[in-house]
Amino acid sequence: MESGIFHTTYRADMALRQTPAEKVRVVLAVLLVLCFPFFADRFYLTLANQIGIAVIGAIGLNLLVGYTGQISLGQGGFMAVGAYTAGLLTAQLGVPWYGSIPLACLATAVVGGFFGIPSLRLKGLYLVIATLAAQEIILWIVTHWDAVTGGVDALVVPDPTLFGIQMNTDFRFYWVIWGLAGLTILVTVNLFRTHIGRAWIAIRDQDIAAEVMGIGLFRYKLLAFATSSFFVGLAGALIAHYRNIVTWERFTVDVSVTYLAMIIIGGLGSVAGAIFGAVFITLLPVFLNDAGQALRGVIPNIDTILPFAEQAAFGIVIILFLVLEPRGLRRIWDRIKDYFRLWPFSY
Q1: pLDDT of 80-110, one tens digit each?
Q2: Inter-CA distances, 73 with 67, 231, 337, 343, Å
Q3: Under 8 Å CB-to-CB from 191, ≥6 apart: which residues?
Q4: What is the pTM (predicted TM-score) of this model?
Q5: Segments making up each domain of the chain, as ranges
């Protein structure tokens, strides 16, 4: 039976995956992502693309909330910055779609860093209110700056093309979304092996002690907001080019709450938790809708009840996880792995 993991070289000690089982799971996950689009129909490809975008956005938010301890309700607003920046650069300035995406990420990082300035003085509920104000300010600018954003009217984005091939079909854009999602996962995992990631974790655990150790709170908190917003802007830019249309209704405070629920249910301070939460929250409405369709002949007026039932189920799931498993799906997954690793000595 395994009694620990022992390394004899620095290279083995610094490896991202240190056991054969971990390496096998990574290979299987990569094979699943690579093979899935060749067997899935359009409905499931659309779901997979939505999950991929949600994974990027959830990782960005988890970087700020789970790893740095800076609670934010401005996710929807920052995604709007990324989406509108990418859409406007392509639609009005003629920037190629693949060039507008990094520019949109940088613009969102600047905006996120600006709204992160109050984080030096504000904590907890007060910081939540500040980020909620950022959400409302951004949406107000989007809906009232008619000369640039078009106000409440939808912004139509040209079809993304590459070598004359339209890219925003479900199958082709799947590779763009999941390629960038994989890159986001890899960058984030390695980021917390650096002094920057360790500084963020120290600030989360005890910011006063971190400052005593020489960590500049203001600099690292702003960097956390900017880095988180960079990934959130990436998710927004992908939405703009995938859907070909940008409207402010896609980025309301409900979106911010949804992404916060993803990282709470998946597990704070964990890249895997952000992935689990994104998958769970994206698929939950689909499962509830399928259940409602199955019960249509049993429960009268199920179509009128179903939207409210979905909202109720959403809230109930969050409460249950907060009460029964505050560390989320990641902790459940860890327990499953530990059970099989230690079996038959499951205690």
Answers
A1: 999 999 999 998 888 999 999 999 999 999 9
A2: 16, 15, 33, 42
A3: 63, 197, 227
A4: 0.91
A5: 45-342
